[in-house]
User: Fold this.
Amino acid sequence: MLMDIIKARHSIRKYTKEQIRRADLEKILEAGNYAPNAGGGQRSMLVAVHNQELTTHLGTMNLARFDRTNLAGSYVSKEQPSTIDDPTIQNGFYGAPTVVCVFCQNNFLFKTADAFCMMENIVLQATELGIASCIISRGYETFDSDEGRRLMEKWDVPEGYTCQGFVILGYIDGALPQSKPRKPGRIKIVE
Ligand SMILES: Cc1cc2nc3c(=O)[nH]c(=O)nc-3n(C[C@H](O)[C@H](O)[C@H](O)COP(=O)(O)O)c2cc1C
Assistant:
């Protein structure tokens, strides 16, 4: 059932070294490709890095641009600590072996919305396949360097596109976390 998958999905930040199968990755990317998109323009594109070494390197580039100011008092997860919770974490992609980079047309009003629709489909499909995931931000910053621009060129990302974010993928190391209790009062039905 879809609701079971929705509730079984958690942001995972502890990964084993096991790489995910290419056939599973292809299915996950297909789910992203069928996401709703503003105006039906299909403007976003996905580049999956199915390579542990390069994913780790990108994760280091991602964390290098993490701005720690204004984090006072925030906490994300005790069971799956994030870079906000634990300043000793070295890799913004937490050692996951695969990352999907979501690129969108820079001058398009709904670029961010389109990207996150894709990411939601991706994490749900991954969950159904038993693959752990986490959405990661700082897409623009990660590629905002000579090295980042070279990688985008190598991957044939069109001119005028920027990265809106990432989904990391792999297998969980350890136990599944619990969902945080839902805050009350966030849902209303008006008739
Ligand atoms: C827009 C967005 C950006 C996020 N960026 C990050 C990130 O950079 N690093 C990270 O560890 N988690 C990131 N997350 C994951 C959230 O921290 C996570 O969804 C939230 O804590 C709720 O936990 P859950 O996904 O397990 O339900 C992001 C999630 C969203 C929706």
Observations:
- Strands lie at 45-49, 98-105, 132-136, 161-170.
